[in-house]
Fold:
Amino acid sequence: MAAKSRTTIIPIGPYHPLQEEPEFFKLHVEGEKVVKLEIEIGYNHRGIEKLAEDLTYDQVPFLVERICGICSTSHPFAAVQAIEDVGGVDVPERAKYIRTFLGELERIHSHLLWLGLAGHFLGFNTLWMWAWKHREPVLDTFELITGNRNHYAMFKPGGVRRDIMDEDIPTAMRLLDGLVRPLNMFIKVVLQDPVLQARTKNVGVLSYDDCVELGALGPTSRASGVPWDVRRDHPYAAYDKVDFNVITTENGDVFDKAVVRL
Amino acid sequence: MSLKIKALTKSIWVFHLAASPCNNCDIEILDLLTPRWDIERFGIQLVGSVRHADAILVTGSMNRKAHERVKRVISQAPQPCFVIALGNCACSMEMFGASYNQMHCLDEVTKVHAYIAGCPPKPEAMIQGIIALIEAQLAALKK
Amino acid sequence: MADEVVEGLKSKFGDAIIDIHEKSPDKTYVTVAPPRLPDVAEYLYKDLGARFSIASGMHMAHGFEILYHFALDAKHRFINLRVILDSEKPSIDSCAKRVPATEWIEREMWELLGIEFRGHPDMRHLLLTDDWPEGNYPLRQDWKDWREGGENGSEK
Ligand code: SF4
Structure:
C-alpha cells in the first residue's frame, strides 16, 4: 500500500508539556489524520492492590484516596461501600447525604478542571484561567467542611469521618451560590465561542457503537448518546433520593464532551 | 557559578516532572498559576521543556517505570538547576514506599535542594518553599 | 425479573453454569465452567446488551478466581461471572476477541497474577516495565518482593 509508507509516527510523552501525568502515546499519522494509536501506561502504577493487602479496613480509604488526586472521593467512596457490603454495615442517613454532597461537589470541581485544561490544550488560556478561578470556591467549600482542599479523608467504613457543622452551612451556601452565575456564563461562553466550536466540533468522534464496544463510561459515553449513569442505574448513597437529569448528546465529538460536562 | 546561582534566584522558570504522582500535587501546581495565586507575579513560570528550566518540581513517588525516565530528564537540565521534591510522595514516598513497583526515593537518585511536604502541599506552602530555597541560596552566596 | 436472566443463562448453557448465588436482589454471582466462559460472556454482552464493566482476579486458597462484572443497566442488575482456575497453571480462553472491552484487563491480570489467556490478541506488559523479570507475578500470595529477596531487583 502506498499510503502505508506515508505514515509518520509522532511520539508523545511520557513527559510532554501537554500532559499532566506521564503516559506514552504513539500516534501514527497520515497527513493530518491519526490512523493508529498505541498507548503505553503504567508510569503511575504503584501497586496499590498489594499495599492494601497489608492494611486494616480503616486504613484502606486513605490509601485508595491517593489513587487519583482529582477524584479523591470516588475511590474511597467505592472502597468503603465494598467494605460495608462485606460487613453488612448500615450507614446513617445523614452520612449518606454528606457522601453524596461531597461526590457532587467533586463533580463540579473536576468538570471545571477538565474544562480549564481543555481550554489550555486548545490554546485558549483565558478559559483555563476563568474556569480555575471559579473552581477555587468549590475547593474552599471542601476546605471548610473537610479540612483540606483535596484528599479530604472524609470516608470511613460505616459513615463519614466528620460531620458538616451547622455553622459552616451558611458559608458553604454562600460560596456555592456565588458559583451559579459564573457557571451560567461558562455555558454561554463555551457553547457559543466560534474558536472552540471550530476546534472541537467533529473532532475525535466516538460513535455509539464504539462506545458500547469499548465499554466507555461516564461523561464520555453520555457524549456519544449512551445513557449510562451509575448514579441513576445502580443508585448508591443518597442518589436515589435526589433528583437529577442524565444529560446525553449525540455526536460523541470533543465539543459534546464539553457539553455534557457543563 | 555564584553569578549563575544569583541569576537563578530571580524569575525562576520551573519544569514540572510528574513521576507517578496521584496527580493532586500536579493540579495544585497548576493552581498556582491561576488567578487566585498567580505566581507569575514573582516571575515564576511553568515551561514546557526541561532544557529551559531553572528548577524542576518533582511530584510523586517514582515507580520502576518512571525511574529511568526521571533520571534521564533530570540529567538533561542545564546546570545549575534546583530540584524540588514536592509532596510527601517525592519527599519520602509516603505510603507507597513498601510497594513492589517502587525502588528508590527521589533523593537517593539525585540531589534535592528543597523538600515541600504535604499531601498535597497547599499552594501557600509551595510558594513559601520556593522562597525559602531562594533565600537559602542567597544566604549561602553571601558567606 | 431477576430470574429471567438467570433462567436464560441456565437454559442456554445448562451444565456450564455450576452455581448461582444471589448476593442481593441486584447482584448475582454465576459460577461458570472455565471452558465456556467466553460463550457466556458473549451471550451477556451481545444478546442481552449487558455492559462489561471490569474484571477482577484474585489468588485465593482454592486457586485463582476471576470475576467478570457485567451490568445490565436497563434492568438495574449486575451479573458477575465467576470462574475458578487451578493454582498450578492457571489458563483460560481469552474473551478479548468477543468482548473487546476485556482486552486491557486481561493483560493486566496476566502480568500481575500470571493467568494465561489463550488467544489474546495482544499480550504485552500493560503496567509494569518491559524488563520485568519473567515469571514474577506480584499479586500472587507466595510472591516475594525484592526487599524479601525477590527478583524484581533494585540497581541504582
Ligand atoms: S504527596 Fe499526596 S497529593 Fe502529592 S502525589 Fe503524593 S499522594 Fe498525591
